[in-house]
């Protein structure tokens, strides 16, 4: 009798355990489904808000201690926003090169790259961002030191999703630098959210 009662208790416990396992599996299945839906949504969100990239272009040549002429103006349109804010603009270096032969090798040399939005005359061009870089010898270090957003608001007319961007470059002077301009220092491009 005692054995039979124990067997019935064990069977009841096993039945409860199986029932709890089924509930856990259902909860786990539901959590997995929610995670899958969330992941799918986030992936689509990132694709929908992918950045627009410009063509790659070369840095302007520059003389020691001076600011370069501006680069060609690059037109770029956002596929995500109807107006472009300064906070939604980006500039990246794609390829680094060395200063031209004859330039003094210095780890204390700096470069300043300014990104502008080109405006029609008589309006002044908008300074959008300023990038500060350091050198290692005659080459820019691969990590930007500092980025300043000079204009975080709309940099073109409201409702205009296309901007016209360009950069200028200045490289700090070192005693002994040549008076000739440097050759190409980098290749770069713009991006918009």
Structural summary, described in words:
Helix content is 24%, strand content 30%. The strands form two sheets. Strands 3, 5, 6, 7, 8 and 9 form a six-stranded antiparallel beta sheet that branches. Strands 1, 2, 4 and 10 form a four-stranded antiparallel beta sheet that branches. The protein is elongated. It folds into two domains: 48 residues; 139 residues, Jelly Rolls. The protein is an alpha+beta fold and 193 residues long.
Please summarize what this structure is.
With 193 residues, the protein is an alpha+beta fold. The protein contains one helix and ten strands.
What keywords describe this structure?
alpha+beta, Jelly Rolls, 2 domains, 4-stranded antiparallel beta sheet, 1 helix, about 30% strand, elongated
């Amino acid at each position: 009798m005692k054995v039979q009662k124990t067997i019935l208790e064990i069977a009841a416990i096993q039945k409860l355990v199986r029932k709890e396992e089924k509930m856990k599996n259902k909860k786990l299945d539901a959590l997995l489904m929610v995670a899958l839906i969330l992941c799918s949504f986030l992936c689509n969100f990132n694709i929908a808000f992918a950045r627009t990239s410009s063509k790659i272009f070369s840095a302007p040549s520059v003389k020691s201690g001076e600011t370069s002429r501006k680069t060609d103006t690059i037109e770029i349109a956002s596929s995500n926003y109807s107006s472009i804010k300064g906070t939604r603009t980006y500039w990246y270096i794609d390829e680094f090169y060395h200063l031209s032969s004859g330039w003094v090798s210095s780890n204390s040399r700096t470069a300043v790259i300014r990104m502008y939005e080109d405006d029609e005359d008589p309006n002044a061009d908008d300074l959008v961002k300023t990038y500060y870089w350091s050198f290692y010898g005659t080459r820019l270090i691969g990590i930007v030191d500092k980025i300043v957003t000079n204009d975080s608001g709309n940099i073109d007319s409201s409702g205009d999703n296309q901007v016209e961007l360009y950069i200028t470059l200045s490289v700090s002077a070192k005693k002994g630098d040549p008076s000739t301009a440097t050759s190409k220092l980098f290749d770069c491009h713009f991006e918009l959210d």
